[in-house]
Specification:
The protein is an alpha/beta fold. Strand 18 and strand 19 form a beta hairpin. It is globular and about 75 Å long.
């Protein structure tokens, strides 16, 4: 197929995925989690690997929240993919601003290219059909059309938006002009839609030339375009990241690309895609796409399930034993358990909102917290003390830092630690320990090719993570 323009995959990796709480949280949302039963790759890793078989493409451009920048970088490194750029949004403003930023960046870097816009958290089981449909879309993008991909519906879903084309497209090998976009319908309406070959689910996957979408944005939402241009012009380079200017971007409207352009343009086309697609937006969707036993149950982790029907059980840590249950979702993490009937999962978002309003840590954070140098897990804590397990990646280092309110004890349990306290530098081996007095400058490093694991015991009158004064840092975190 003749392709005049090279393809730039644009991966949208924002969002918190609150409908998949307690597994998905603000600090570690669903796109960075392995949600599938038999796949240890995260959703964004699956998305990146899925497009590797396309020809004539640039390295992907990823847009994420600045809080997740090191998660993105590390998960790309794990699968040997180096993005052409990682754009950091100071806060989410929906898909239209994100796509606009990507299009501006693309025209600056590559003069022009075809953007293939993908959400980081979709599941697609039939990869061949997915890739073949994407290739068909290139023809229309080359003709200056704005292409969206409509998922061939398998059931009367009320949780998805629909696209109505001007002519029947189900089972066809060509696109049709878009008649209109339809918000999530009620069940009776959805049943009518799936009998009509003009209706497909709205996938949120797009393809268009960068220059073409910018023309349409200028025509339909010029203010948004101007703000995004200003935000890019005032952006800064931070290591491998492009940090969008917060002051400029805060004025950007919160609007989807459908509302901003696709519902207004006369050049929109919808191309049917039949690729076993799911947006994995809820626990019911996870159950639906999982491999199930004869009684319709799906499990992940250490689970014993007897005499039960239509359930999804997932354990991240503990053994779950369930007997004689029906239509339940049970998700166990290190610090929270969800037990819900499948029919009542719509209330989960309001529960997460309530947790945030009450400033519960479980709303935003996991016990295991990821950092660019590795991770730490809080094991236990009380008044004036806290115990953590710290893991430092090979040849990595924490910042040179100081605490105003706490002292620390370090005990190495695996590997070797390079320790710096004030002007003293020394090596700790397994079963050796040291003490960092309150107010002392210190740094922990792993000089080896193996993971370093140690126990940290904190003591003091305040143990918050914001009690860190950084002096030097390899990850650009010194303010």
């Amino acid at each position: 197929m003749n392709n005049k323009y090279k393809i730039l995959p644009v991966i949208l990796a924002g969002g918190s995925g609150s409908r998949l709480w307690p597994l998905s949280r603000d600090s570690f949302p669903k796109q960075y989690i392995a949600l599938s039963q038999n796949n240890e790759l995260s959703q964004i890793q699956c998305t990146l690997k899925r497009i590797n078989n396309l020809k004539n493409i640039f390295e992907p451009l990823i847009i994420c929240n600045e809080e997740h920048r090191f998660l993105v970088a590390e998960q790309c490194r794990e699968i040997n993919i180096k993005p052409s750029s990682i754009i950091l949004e100071p806060f989410g403003r929906n898909t239209a601003p994100a796509i606009t930023l990507a299009a501006i960046k693309a025209t600056k870097n590559n003069k022009d290219s075809i953007l293939l816009v993908l959400s980081a958290d979709h599941e697609i089981k039939n990869i061949n059909n997915f890739l073949n449909t994407i290739k068909k879309g290139i023809k229309y993008a080359n003709e200056n059309k704005l292409v969206t991909f409509g998922i061939v519906p398998k059931s009367p879903e009320t949780g998805f938006g629909y696209i109505q084309s001007t002519k029947p497209i189900i089972g066809k090998n060509e696109a049709s002009k878009i008649d209109k976009f339809i918000e999530k319908p009620n069940l009776e309406t959805a049943k009518r839609f799936i009998l009509d070959e003009r209706f497909t689910w709205n996938s949120g996957i797009f393809m268009f030339k960068a220059s073409r979408i910018l023309e349409e944005l200028k025509k339909h939402t010029p203010q948004l375009l101007d703000i995004c241009i200003e935000s890019i012009e005032n952006s800064s380079i931070d290591l491998d990241f492009l940090r969008i200017n917060k002051k400029s971007f805060k004025n950007c409207p919160n609007i989807s690309i459908d509302n901003a352009v696709m519902e207004k343009t006369t050049q929109g086309m919808v191309l049917p895609m039949d690729a076993e697609w799911s947006d994995l937006g809820s626990w019911n969707a996870i159950l639906e796409t999982s491999n199930k036993d004869l009684n319709g149950n799906a499990v992940k982790g250490e689970v014993i399930l007897k005499n039960s029907n239509g359930c999804y059980l997932r354990s991240e840590k503990s053994l779950i034993v369930a007997l004689g249950i029906k239509d339940l979702i049970l998700v166990d993490t290190s610090d929270a358990i969800l037990i819900a009937h499948k029919k009542h999962l719509d209330g989960l978002k309001s529960v997460v909102k309530e947790l945030k309003e009450n400033q519960k840590d479980q709303a935003k954070f996991h016990k295991k917290v990821h950092r660019p140098w590795g991770n730490y897990t809080t094991i236990e804590e009380g008044s004036g003390w806290k115990v953590k397990i710290i893991e430092v990646k090979p040849n990595s280092s924490l910042s040179l830092q100081m605490h105003n309110h706490r002292a620390e004890h370090w005990i190495v349990v695996k590997g070797k630690a390079q320790v710096e306290i004030a002007d003293n530098k020394f090596l700790l081996k397994e079963n050796q320990s040291t003490f960092i007095p309150l107010g002392a400058k210190h740094r922990l490093s792993n000089p080896t090719e193996e993971i370093l694991s140690l126990i940290e015991v904190q003591s003091g009158n305040y143990l918050g993570e914001d009690d860190i004064i950084r002096f030097k840092d390899y990850y650009g975190r010194v303010k």
